[in-house]
Amino acid sequence: MSTTRWGDALVRYPAGRAHAYRAAGLWGTATIADELHRVARAHPDRDAVVVVDGRATYRELDQRTDALAAGLAGLGLRPGDPVLFQVSNTLAAVVAWYGVLKAGLVPVATLAAHRGHEVSAISRQVGAVAHLVETGGKFDLVGFAVDQARDHPTLRHVLVVGDDPRGVGLDALAAGADPPRARERVAVIQAGIDPDDVAVFQLSGGTTGVPKVIPRLHAEYWYNAAAYASSWGWTPDTRVAHLIPIVHNAGVVCALHAPHSVGGALVLGTPDLDVSLPLMAAEGVTHALIGQGHFGAVDHPRFDGAVAALTQVVLSGAKIPPRLFDFFERRGTWSGQLFGMGEGLFLTTRPGAPRTARAETVGTVLSAHDEVRVLEPGAETPVPDGEVGELCCRGPYTLPGYFAAPEHNARAFTSDGFYRTGDLAALRLIEGERYVSIEGRIKDLINRGGEKINAEEVELLLLRHPRVSAAAVVAMPDRRLGERTCAFVVVDGERLTLEQVQRHFAGLDVAKFKWPERVEHLSELPRTLVNKIDKKRLQARISETLAAEQGAGGGPVPAGPAPTGPGGGPA
């Protein structure tokens, strides 16, 4: 299957750069499914995945995913068909991921927390043919998938992890498969797939509307993960703990594909520390990625036992509290930082980086072929080292364009193909090497525990309330998640309570982590001299308000039930 399936919706890497990446040995000539099969043959009896309620060796994972792929093909799904994923951190989710890839299908990495507002638009944009969900949980994802399929132009199948008559169960699809025949069928499917074709659709934190779709290709996506594993010196003995959502760019690259690229093990937990820390302790994890939402884990009574075998910990989120580096250094555990994005670029402070670089920057590029520039915002002029500008990048795993978004791509890339990240950064010279420090962002985003919330999207949703005449959304500081969403509103009539605002968002079927978690009322929104809403003043106002409340014995706790998010995480 060639990339022509996607037509002009897919922006291809320029031929010269693609040739250079392959000639340098960065991009391979195999699909992700074939890469997994190769590793499974080399390490058949090693742990591939361990979860609270089960585990699978590479041989078992390879055979189970072959069987599922054969069942999916028998259902009539064809290579290239997009499949929406809404699953949590389970062994079944990992089997589903690789099974879908082995069938030649394209996972679409929506979050389990997404609802109709997001899923409907994303599904129609990519032409999703199937929706894969799981049973259990407080929200009926199976019923949601059935509802989404009504009047949908392409959705034909509801696939279910678990047992529910409203969809097709994955266990039933895989049951009774003959291993040699399933392997043969997978091999035939994979032989027809171009390694430079779309493997996965990831989603952006975007600044306009619902998330933008990020096409990740087989060769570049596997290289991204393999380079990440190499940067930390991973081996088949590496055991990687991961607690944030697995079907998310950070989860797929750092926790799933990366350890599997070297024959290592994924120890897959959940955001619940009471569940995950005992699992980490029992499995002797050697590496862990800790995101903003788990910075407080070091205070948990079971944390020391969980990290007894830990040799590396990577911290990712907003500015890392110095006490975290101090904590790990006291116990002799190497610690560093990661900055990543679904669009591609990874920056890491890998082993050997000076203490100052590890504590105060997000490091250097993952690949020698990554190119980073810090430009004057809105221009293409580089700023001098040490000065703040917009971080821009291109390279062997950074997208050359969003899917089916030509107008947005015209703004999101420089004239020579560098992606404008929207992050403010500076290049700092430390011991003769340039490191990147993140200094803020241009894009109007709230970073809630690693999940990027588009302020404009939330503002437009607020304005759909019949009594809201003006709205502005800003980030308010939060000890656990880094930031939460504060909405400043101008209303007609009586003030709106937080509960009323959240009911409004529930009625619009918006993912819960996007709901405002505090509402402030104003008679009018402050404006700058050029008549734009002055968000700096609003940001200062809410920070001062929270500081005063804390000083008076209160705190930044919303006056109502705070919505739960998807767990948060980097990239």
TrEMBL record:
Residues 457-528 form the AMP-binding enzyme C-terminal domain. Residues 547-571 are annotated as: Disordered. The keyword Ligase applies. InterPro entries: AMP-bd_C, AMP-bd_C_sf, AMP-binding_CS, AMP-dep_synth/lig_dom, ANL_N_sf. Keywords: Ligase. SUPFAM superfamilies: Acetyl-CoA synthetase-like. Signal peptide: none annotated. The keyword GTP-binding does not apply. Belongs to the ATP-dependent AMP-binding enzyme family. This is AMP-binding protein.
